[in-house]
Design goal:
It holds the Pfam family Fic. The protein is mostly helical and 404 residues long. The chain contains 17 helices and six strands.
Length: 404
């Protein structure tokens, strides 16, 4: 059976405009808005046109169409498969690939906002925090919040102040002083979002409106009657629509999405969202533009479908990466077994292979790390590594000199 592609109201409007059949379009709008299956969110938006919000309001709603049900089923299945693939990996590999994907995610969320950073720089911050060498460096707040996913710690939003708390922890270190919120929690004045000289969005006009809309958003986010994935993505739209801060809205908005997805799916699916957006920017921004169109009447069905597809594309890439890594690790295991290594030599090589396969841009595994993982003394480790270096299986790339 071929599933007919769901048409957005915006698309139907322009289609009917060519035919001059606006009576049919008006009928479709009313049918969708009053459909007994329609899920109304309580979140109210004004469409955006020619640099301004129009003086009309629509409640955001969506229809749980077959495409959404199918995508949700596929997403949940992929999440289970990713968890199964992760479970096949040794602990070192699990840690390495999580951090590697985390680095990609943080770099991607910075890229989207035009914030200059590098994967090496983010990797260094992660290493400093993990080794407790201080966490006041650039991007340390961003790193610390995302890294909590590995420990199953997520940001709960129960009141509007929680949005400010997340902003403080996530991006306050990277935001210029003049862009700090000047209201009680959020910005006091209006904010215009531009793409070059073109205005692409206007956030809420003042803090009073921000407070009101965020309160509605909190109620929606905690409404268990709305299916989780659709609620997640429509809440993401509304947060970006409100735009409560002068700077840092995109990064906090995507973090909130990731935190929610990490609770509902596996954490690897969650921390790949920004990376997928970077790979499919036009799809992401097109969905926002269509949602804000005056002829869309606040319908979020198409937006939910677009965001679910993005999420699923990211999951597919994660699954491919895991499959490739598992194959490489199996080959490494076979090769080390074919040689006449001692148990300690084979164990050390296998750990270092895991780092090489899964830990691109991740900080180095130190001698101390190896002693902790292998549960041996430093003396025995030094003997093991020296033998591997002497037999040309390992190459020394850096030596840390001891100071007196």
């Amino acid at each position: 059976m071929t599933i007919k592609k769901y048409q957005t109201l915006k698309g139907l409007y322009y289609q009917n405009m060519q035919n001059g059949d606006f009576v049919h379009f008006d009928t479709v709008v009313k049918q969708r808005q009053t459909n007994e299956l329609a899920i109304h969110t309580g979140m109210v938006m004004s469409p955006f046109k020619r640099d301004y919000r129009l003086p009309i309001e629509y409640e955001i709603f969506y229809l749980p169409v077959l495409q959404i049900s199918q995508l949700e089923e596929q997403i949940n299945q992929l999440s289970k498969e990713i968890e199964q693939k992760m479970a096949q990996l040794p602990v070192v590999s699990q840690n390495q690939i999580f951090i590697s994907n985390l680095i990609d995610e943080l770099q991607s969320t910075n890229d989207i906002e035009g914030v200059r950073s590098s994967r090496e720089e983010i990797s260094q911050v992660i290493e400093q925090i993990q080794r407790r060498k201080g966490d006041r460096g650039r991007f340390s707040g961003l790193v610390k919040q995302y890294a909590k996913f590995e420990e199953n710690q997520y940001s709960q939003i129960r009141e509007i102040q929680d949005f400010r708390n997340i902003w403080n922890e996530l991006v306050s270190q990277e935001v210029a002083e003049q862009d700090f919120p000047d209201g009680k929690y959020f910005r006091k004045n209006g904010e215009v979002i531009k793409d070059g000289d073109r205005v692409v969005h206007r956030g809420d006009a003042n803090e009073q409106q921000i407070d009101h809309d965020l309160q509605v958003l909190v109620q929606t986010m905690n409404n268990d009657d709305i299916p989780s994935l659709a609620k997640c993505f429509l809440s993401h739209y509304y947060y970006e629509y409100i735009h409560p801060f002068y700077d840092g809205n995109g990064r906090t908005g995507r973090f909130i999405v990731c935190s929610y997805l990490a609770r509902k799916l596996d954490r690897m699916s969650a921390i790949n969202f920004s990376s997928t957006i970077v790979a499919h920017k036009s799809t992401y921004y097109k969905a926002f533009t269509a949602m804000a169109d005056e002829h869309n009447y606040g319908e979020g069905t198409g937006f939910v479908i677009s965001m679910m597809r993005l999420l699923m594309m990211g999951q597919v890439e994660v699954a491919k990466k895991l499959d490739h890594g598992i194959q490489m690790l199996d080959k490494a295991d076979q090769l080390t077994e074919q040689q006449h290594f001692s148990d300690l030599e084979q164990q050390a090589l296998f750990i270092l292979c895991q780092k090489a396969i899964f830990g691109r841009y991740v900080g180095p595994i130190t001698d101390q790390d190896l002693t902790d993982i292998m549960h041996i003394s430093r003396y025995r480790l030094d003997q093991t590594l020296a033998k591997l270096v002497n037999d040309d299986y390992l190459v020394v790339t850096r030596v840390r000199l001891k100071t007196t």
